[in-house]
């Protein structure tokens, strides 16, 4: 892109490199450079059109002068033919023919001069056409480069932002946070296990009493209780 910026800033190659390093927004500078190139291209195309117009007019003038010279020669021949036929004095015919031929020579010289000028102008037109084509190609290439530059700029900005965020979170702080989280998880797991064990081992007071009485007690069995109940009710 150095060539573009050197054209934009109108300075030498070394100054262009220095200017590029100081640019805060290269995309905007590139867009402005392309606008300047398009303006130059428009002016060049106007100049090319003017030169081509001059060439066309000169070519037409040269052709007209050639036709005029041929017409003068035809008139001189007609005068001599009339003198030959006796309808015009030979001396008069020769005088007039001489005058006509003199004008024919002037017209032929002018036609030759214009033809040479047309050749010179056509050479200038061809060179200008090459310059216009080159400038048009340059503008198109820079416009394509600008599309790429915009995409790269967005990618670079996103990458820069992400890297900055990663840099703010250092590896030491990340490990410390992971260790703290691990301790918290282990603490919660241990507390959950403790609550589970308490829930599994929980017993009511009645359960404890029955358990104590059932171990080594001499309480009557179910059959003895039934017999006692029947005796109380005076049943057989």
List keywords for this structure.
mainly alpha; 236 residues
Q: What's the Cα radius of gyration? A: 56 Å
Which secondary-structure class do the elements indicate? mainly alpha
Strand percentage:
under 5%
Low-confidence sequence ranges: none
- Into which percent range does the helicity of residues fall? over 70%
Quote the average pLDDT.
Answer: 79
Total helical segments:
7
Order of helices and strands: HHHHHHH
The largest sheet is: none
| Shape call | rod-shaped
Overall strand count: 0
Q: Give the CA-CA distance, first to last residue.
A: 121 Å
Structure in words:
- The model has no long low-confidence stretch (mean pLDDT 79).
- The protein has a domain at 43-141.
- It is rod-shaped.
- The protein is an all-alpha fold and 236 residues long.
- The chain contains seven helices and no strands.
- Helix 1 packs across helix 2, helix 1 (2-9) crosses helix 3 (26-85) and helix 3 (26-85) packs antiparallel against helix 4.
Question: How do the strands and helices of this protein lay out in sequence?
Answer:
Layout: H1 2-9, H2 13-22, H3 26-85, H4 90-168, H5 171-201, H6 205-214, H7 222-232
Summary, kept brief:
The protein is mainly alpha-helical and 236 residues long. The chain has seven helices and no strands.
């Amino acid at each position: 892109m150095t060539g573009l910026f050197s054209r934009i800033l109108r300075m030498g190659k070394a100054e262009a490199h220095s200017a590029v390093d100081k640019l805060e927004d290269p995309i905007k500078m590139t867009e402005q450079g392309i606008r300047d190139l398009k303006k130059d291209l428009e002016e060049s195309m106007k100049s090319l059109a003017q030169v081509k117009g001059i060439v066309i007019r000169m070519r037409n003038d040269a052709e007209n002068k050639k036709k005029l010279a041929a017409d003068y020669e035809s008139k001189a021949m007609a005068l001599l033919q009339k003198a030959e036929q006796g309808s015009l004095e030979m001396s008069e015919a020769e005088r007039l023919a001489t005058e006509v031929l003199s004008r024919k020579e002037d017209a032929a010289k002018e036609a030759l001069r214009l033809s040479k000028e047309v050749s010179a102008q056509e050479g200038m037109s061809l060179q200008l056409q090459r310059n216009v084509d080159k400038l048009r190609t340059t503008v198109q290439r820079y416009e394509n480069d600008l599309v790429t530059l915009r995409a790269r700029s967005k990618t670079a900005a996103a990458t820069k932002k992400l890297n900055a965020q990663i840099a703010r979170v250092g590896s030491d702080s990340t490990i410390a946070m992971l260790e703290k989280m691990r301790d918290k998880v282990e603490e919660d797991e241990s507390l959950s296990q403790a609550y589970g064990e308490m829930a599994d081992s929980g017993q009511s007071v009645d359960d404890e009493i029955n358990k104590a009485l059932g171990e080594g007690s001499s309480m009557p069995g179910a059959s003895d209780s039934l017999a006692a109940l029947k005796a109380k009710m005076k049943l057989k």
